[in-house]
Amino acid sequence: MIDARGAEMAGVSRLHQPRPGDPLHVLVIDELAVLTSYGPPEIVKEASSLLSEVLTQGRALGVIVLAAVQDPRKEIVGMRDLFTQALALRLNSSTETRMVLVDETTRVAPAHRILRSQQGTGWIQDEDGTFDKVRADYWPDKTIREVARRNPSPVHVELPSEQQTAEDALPRPPLRW
Asked: pLDDT tens digits for 11-26?
């Protein structure tokens, strides 16, 4: 996708403008560490190479990467400097805050001091280098099910029961590639 869009834009534009038939693409990666550290070496190498390519070229080509990670250590997110924005939700230590938001941020953006009861709260760095505290609304599974029940979709999708959700939370064996 990056190569094809880059070829189309070459000599025409340096920045993608989304439009019908040529939208902005958002690549969402939940638990980046599975791709960058915890998989078989050949998968980790290929995933890291491809992701680095998308991160270095994608923004101008209309491809945004949203990646989440629970462990922000450098060996887990070796390409951290290629991400243009960082959002730090509740972290475990001031060291983790520095890893996610850069050095010397623990006083101005203390993500490690966000309470467990403040789910969805975080710190983000603006383009001018300042930090803003942000909050996304948090809806527990019970609320989501109630909203879905009250506002049915014309397309029926079977939601797991609360019992199935509890079973899903049980530890699972590691993924096999």
From this structure: 887 888 888 888 888 9
Distance of CA 112 to CAs 9, 69, 135, Å? 42, 15, 15
Residue type, position 138, single letter = Y
Which 8-state DSSP code applies to residue 62?
T
Residues facing 101 on adjacent strands: none
The contacts of residue 17 (CB under 8 Å, 6+ apart) are 62
Residue 71 CA to residue 77 CA, distance in Å, equals 8
Q: State which amino acid sits at residue 20.
A: P
- Residue 72's nearest CA partner among 46, 42, 102, 104 is 102
Whole-number Å distance between alpha carbons of 87 and 123: 6
Is there a contact between 43 and 80 (Cβ–Cβ < 8 Å)?
A: no
- Which single residue is written with the structure tokens 């998989």? 39
The predicted-structure confidence for 10-67, as pLDDT tens digits, reads as follows 888 788 888 888 888 899 998 888 888 888 889 889 988 889 988 988 888 888 899 8
Helix (H, G, I), strand (E, B) or coil at 6: helix
Residue 75 tokens, joined: 């060996």
pTM: 0.67
Please name the residue ranges forming H helices in 18-171.
33-36, 41-57, 94-101, 141-150, 162-168
Structure tokens at 7: 């070829």
